[in-house]
Amino acid sequence: MSPLARLRRWTVWPMLWKEFVQVRRDRFTMAMMVGIPAIQLVLFGYAIQTEVRHQPLLVVDQSRTVESRALVAAMINTSNFDLAGEVGDARALERAIAAGRARAGLVIPADYARNAARGQPARAQLLVDAADPIAANGAMAAAQQAGLVRSRELAAAGRPGLAPMVEVRVRPLYNPAVRSAVFIVPGIIGVLLSITMVLIASMAVVRERERGTLEQLVVTPIGKTSLMLGKMAPFLIIGYVQVGVILLLGRLLFRVPFQGSVPLLLAFTLPFILASLGLGLLFSTLVRTQAQAMQLGFFYLMPNILLSGFMFPREAMPPAAQWIAATLPLTYFLEVLRGILLKGVGFEALWREGLILAGFAVGLTGLAVVRFRKGLE
């Protein structure tokens, strides 16, 4: 064999050119390869922020004086809080925070102004929803800053020898030690269910099509809707098994509290699993190969994880990212998980999230069935 023949035998250019041509013909893969990094870089670069501002603040003002109003103004001036209104007492304040109406509550006792006038320590209490440690740490730091500001203002305006100190004592709710595991572990339930249900369901129909068994299923005396629901049933059971395993390990290994009702949590889990399965089956009707199904699934899962509030507070995101988060079922399921597990709230506080999840389940499953029927016509 001549040296030229040997060189042609070992050259990679023909094979390389063939692969480029094949990739160029697969427009869906090309769009995913080029579009996904660009979209995610722009989206997450703007959306992901750890500094939480403008948290809703409720006030219990038992002093009702100029001094108490000045303390509230100092809290608002930190830009970490937005005044969300007033409530009558501390018990109503805790109920409002548990229901999600506010992320923090300021309790100003009746003797606050009197102590400040006497040059004695003027104390107030800040109740913080510490289920999210990032947001809670920002709120606690802002409260300490507001207390220092008011102390300096009172000292500058006071009489000689009087230097009252304003002290804002913080009481973290639902996560007293402000541990990240308490915040993350309940969210893992929703994230793992999303990953498992969407990816597996998205490949279910595609796998049948690639193996040539989809036509055999179609000609069986089973309706198309029954066929799709039959595909979803085994994964529904798997989803509940995952929930049980994570709850058990989270309790044993990470000491995650379980304050609420187990049956209520399982009831809210049903529409979320159905919505995730419906979305996965919808993806399976849009692609032709399992590789494309996985690409589309991961394209959905990245914003699903990063924008839903699993890792980063949604309050810190720009409005556009919050609108995108509002279209994700996981956003509402995380509210359900943390509300039941950490806060112990009931159906009366979570019925809106449950109704939205039910809407996602019906809408996505129905759309997947319609797409599946059209794909077979």
What does this structure look like?
- The structure is a single chain.
- 68% of the residues lie in helices and 9% in strands.
- By secondary structure, it is an alpha/beta fold.
- Strand 4 (122-129), helix 7 and strand 5 (166-173) form a beta-alpha-beta unit.
- The radius of gyration is 28 Å and the shape is elongated.
Keywords:
377 residues, 15 helices, 5 strands, 9% strand
Furnish the topology, listing elements before pairings.
Layout (H helix, E strand, L loop, with lengths): L2 H8 L2 H13 L1 H21 L7 E7 L4 H12 L3 E6 L3 H9 L5 E5 L3 H6 L4 E8 L3 H25 L8 E8 L6 H32 L2 H5 L5 H31 L7 H23 L5 H18 L11 H7 L3 H15 L3 H30 L1
Alpha-carbon distance between the termini?
Answer: 56 Å
DSSP helical segment count? 15
Please tell me what the overall shape is. Answer: elongated
Quick check: average pLDDT?
A: 81
